[in-house]
Amino acid sequence: MRIGILKQIQLQERRIPLVPAGAHLLASRGHSVFVEHEAGLPAGFTDDDYLAAGAGIVYSRSEAVGRAELVLGVAPVQPEDISHLLPNQTLMTFGHLVTLRPETFRGLCDKSITAVAYELIENDQRRRPIVEVMGEIAGPMAVTMAARFLESHQGGRGVLLGGLPGTPPSHVVVIGGGNVGMAAVRAALGLGAQVTLVDKDPEPLRNAAIQFDRRVTTYLSYRYNLERVLPTADVVIGAVWVYGGRPPILITREMVRSMKPGSVIVDCSIDQGGICETGRPTSFADPVFVVDKVIHCCIPNMPASVARTASFALANALFPYVRNLAEGGLEKVLEDQPNFSEGIYVRDGRMAHPAMEMFAADTAPVSY
User: Which residues belong to the active site?
Assistant: First the structure.
């Protein structure tokens, strides 16, 4: 199979979905890998690294796509990407389906593309390996971002997360007990913070209490509880993930007003729309804004700030699916790994995922 690897140019994305070791494994089995010029450089992989692994280097986006049957990217597909795609190709990227624009979806349908969203892919245990591994990065990154913007010269409260003898630690509230939230809890505890975990389901709260030896205060996610917890917080981390949809708004404008001046909200859910009424996407170049004296950090692709680590993690989780697609095609993958179908949101130009029903009125028929 011919596989094209795209350079990521959106939102300062720096990850790459295939590292040289993966390219070598594919090339050694007779597959052709075409890497767009300097696609791996932001993550520390040179063109020479890919050449030594047996890949080819191409010098335009259109060539990387034009030579490929399977196209691998990271950032969600944009309307301007459609012009490069060829009919009947398979495209794999992060989907962020709630932000998918109608013209992008129509373009995928018109070209009979099969599009796969990394975050929706499930393994045989019904777990989402790519979501999990990116969450393990995003959680600690959210804590380190929060620690940075708590600093006085950043406009924050000027407090240390772990405090000091005679000085209390900062209070970190994590909303969401999934992979991102649990990783954030672990990182915040490691720095000595006082941590509260909020979730709508008692099970992750119970797991946190056991895993962290009851060093975490836990609350069910009721408005009543949030209204009483948030005013005491120095840091709030949004870590809610909803399968194929947008998470609810849990932090209202009134709750933001109740928070301490100089406190920090890091909304890791922003790539799905966010859980904070006052939130909006930011970037690494302009990471924060202030509403009601509260600092908001809402970077959608936070793992990209540790691009090399994140690229290895993404490639490791993704490679088994890429290898199986290259060896046997989509039908063989679906036969051997039927839960892979959960990641397909467009198949041969037809809707293949319930999240796409918002486009049902003016697009091709549903096929799931």
Answer: 96, 271
